């Protein structure tokens, strides 16, 4: 699937940079065009892979290149005011060569949180291609303002895109891990999962051809119903046929009959599918009630078992209760792993979102109370007791 990716804000730009690095490393061909948008000049300068001509600094008349300081209302205003500057970069995208737009943003900050929904609305008004979003939720320990920003941005962003794929930082940060180290690892996790999903159907240099290849239309149809999506992932290293207990030894038949090997391979792929769907999702949720789902099993084509994939697809159908579960393979000739990716679209039983909204309401009420108390305290401070002083104007 070929995408025009737009990273907005600091995290959005960094994740976009990671996607370009992944594209180079894997020859996946998913990033047709890449644009980074920010109000902070330093963040744009720190990018390594996004072409300099595709780095768009907005809000110079308002914030002078210093960012919006986690003020997502200001971020939204600036995106509205400078949308023509962003469109100038988008005009260089060969839209006839892309399957969809993908806007990437962290929802807890200022520029991405405020600007991503504005950009999505703009793109939807002009283009017929689907517009998707990757929204990154802040961790619980990042503070009330980030929680409030994320809840408000999430609510707006999901209504402006054709589908919002969510990644919850809180589910992925490790205790004791440095913030920078944690985010670098999280960004790698994001790119790995979404890279395999969107890479499905693209021809790689290996020339491998699968038995039932997932193409871009199946991804688009799975995301077409809108709402919120989450992705599961599980992988196993392919070992040499001479080693014991590895995935490859089960597939290639060392020490057993062809029938036994086929059964083992089927079971191993089915197990991977279960781990992907029931393990750590990008947005933890109950998978029952999922509206639509897509299964992609990636790896060297000779190690992809059609029966295992079909059995995994049927299991996913049973678990979600959905009648729209698509599935297939994604051959990657030089891969050292077999991986299963499950896209669950239209999920609704998401405790984290309800928790986020509740904390955001509480944060907003606390902030309103603090503001009122502060205004009253300031009034007491500056007024003289007998009201004898006269103001200058």
Automatic annotation (TrEMBL):
Function: Involved in cell shape control.
Keyword flag Lyase: no
Pfam assignment, any one: CetZ_C
Name of the protein in its database record: Tubulin-like protein CetZ
Domain (Tubulin/FtsZ GTPase): residue spans on this chain: 2-205
Keywords in alphabetical order: Cell cycle, Cell division, Cell shape, Cytoplasm, GTP-binding, Nucleotide-binding
GO CC annotation: cell division site; cytoplasm; microtubule
GO molecular function (one): GTP binding
CDD domains to which the protein is assigned, alphabetical: CetZ_tubulin-like
InterPro entries, per database record: CetZ, CetZ_C, FtsZ/CetZ, Tubulin/FtsZ-like_C, Tubulin/FtsZ_GTPase_sf, Tubulin_CS, Tubulin_FtsZ_GTPase
Positions bound to GTP: 10-14, 110-112, 142, 169, 187
Statement: the UniProt record of this protein carries the keyword Cell cycle: yes
Sequence ranges of Acidic residues compositional bias: 381-393
Family to which this protein belongs: Belongs to the CetZ family.
Location(s) in or outside the cell: Cytoplasm
Region listing for Disordered, in residue ranges: 364-393
Domain of life: Archaea
A single GO BP: cell division
